[in-house]
Fold this sequence. Notes:
Elements: H1 3-16, H2 22-29, H3 33-44, E1 50-52, E2 56-58, H4 71-81, H5 84-87, H6 93-106, H7 132-141, E3 143-150, E4 156-169, E5 172-179, E6 184-189, E7 193-202, H8 211-215, E8 226-233, H9 235-242, E9 251-254, E10 260-267, H10 270-273
Antiparallel strand pairs: 1-2, 1-4, 3-4, 3-7, 4-5, 5-6, 8-10, 9-10
Helix pairs in contact: 2-3
Amino acid sequence: xxxxxxxxxxxxxxxxxxxxxxxxxxxxxxxxxxxxxxxxxxxxxxxxxxxxxxxxxxxxxxxxxxxxxxxxxxxxxxxxxxxxxxxxxxxxxxxxxxxxxxxxxxxxxxxxxxxxxxxxxxxxxxxxxxxxxxxxxxxxxxxxxxxxxxxxxxxxxxxxxxxxxxxxxxxxxxxxxxxxxxxxxxxxxxxxxxxxxxxxxxxxxxxxxxxxxxxxxxxxxxxxxxxxxxxxxxxxxxxxxxxxxxxxxxxxxxxxxxxxxxxxxxxxxxxxxxx
Length: 275
């Protein structure tokens, strides 16, 4: 099975089965678990978020390929197939052509969509997701994990975490869970986990927790209290910010001197202050 076909097959499986682990997907697709993690990265970078919570799932039904595609859905699928991930080289050209022809023949009018960010390169090093299978098991069984974690500042701490979900966001794998050291739900990059040990102690996920609500309003990875920012940017920073969308609710006011006034309400301050 070629990569294009496998990615679409994975999406189809996740649409109908919410309890599949990486090992299950690997068996269905007849590939290794490492290949499945790379496939999840590819799908996530196509703005089709996938997370693990007792099984891999599509966040807010971001992609549900039905048997009869609407014009909007057909446009989405065409954009996906024509993106840099699949358009480079001849490896998938025949499969892409056949699928595209079927879509075009079945639709009188295909609605164009905004560009899909599927060509981004993952910043993860090989092996950074080595603890993902163990974390999948801990999430499924609702068991506490004890980890050794290195922060962005290089500080190493021992923590006990109730793991709620793992997901791929902004080019990296992350664990979301309740951290007993900080006494709150936190986000941890899998590549900074030095050790992971699954304990016998069990936990319950709060009924009001969901991955979608946790990341709602964030700039990408981290969450927190909603904060209003109003900042003036000039020079290269102004050009860089106004040529890309960083948040769906941002407002940009361009000034005569070339500077901009940037307003946004985000969850947490860490990511914005790094600007």
